[in-house]
């Protein structure tokens, strides 16, 4: 049923919970997995929409890129520890939700598994969330892990 699973990660606890679920699903279907971390250069006002955050409000892309690479490396190691054998990683720059959806579409993923930060209805409506945006924009099924 699921041959290719996309797992967006940002190093957060919700992303790690999603990782465990994705590893379980991949194991059940012998699916290929891709771990993606999306970063973008952003202002402090945009920080709530970014998958990767930095303490400096205007860090150079290199620092964000390096942090994203570390996030996917750690995630891939954890997937290996959980028994996932077909795992590749990718780091992309751009708006997180749109980039995730585009990668899923362009590479024909069957499922996106992602963590939810659990924004409340009002905060989620005002700020939006990557998981809500991905779920509403993706053409493949999405599994949001709370």
TrEMBL record:
SUPFAM superfamilies: Adenine nucleotide alpha hydrolases-like (SSF52402). InterPro entries: Rossmann-like_a/b/a_fold (IPR014729), Universal_stress_UspA (IPR006015), UspA (IPR006016). It comes from the Bacteria. It holds the Pfam family Usp. Residues 1-146 form the UspA domain. Belongs to the universal stress protein A family. This is Universal stress protein. The lineage of its organism: Bacteria, Pseudomonadati, Pseudomonadota, Alphaproteobacteria, Hyphomicrobiales.
